[in-house]
Design goal:
InterPro entries: BH2638-like_sf, UPF0223. Pfam families: UPF0223. The chain has 82 residues and is mainly alpha-helical. It has a single domain, classed as Orthogonal Bundle (Annexin V, domain 1), CATH 1.10.220. Helix content is 71%, strand content 0%. It is built from 4 helices and no strands. Helix 1 runs antiparallel to helix 2 and helix 2 packs across helix 4. The N and C termini lie far apart (30 Å).
Length: 82
């Protein structure tokens, strides 16, 4: 990994940890395998921190640009399995 996660400097330390965890779960999905429950749990926490859909899209786009990993298909697939 030679890039930075999209973060907001106004978030608390715990919120930053949780957002980093969410994006690392997305990476794990692409690089190894991630459990659907782990994906959805991390996404639920992410949505508590970033409730705005437009803000979510911005962070997801920044992450995709930096990493090459798309977030939406991972979330969609995990939801469909449930």
């Amino acid at each position: 990994m030679d890039y930075h996660y999209p973060l907001n400097e106004l978030w608390s330390k715990q919120e930053i940890i949780d957002v980093v965890h969410f994006f690392s779960v997305i990476e794990k999905y692409y690089e190894q395998t991630a459990d659907d429950n782990e994906i959805l749990g991390a996404y639920t926490r992410f949505k508590e921190i970033v409730p705005s859909k437009s803000e979510e899209k911005t962070y997801f786009k920044e992450f995709e640009t930096a990493s090459g990993y798309k977030v939406f298909p991972v979330i969609k697939q995990a939801k469909e399995v449930k």
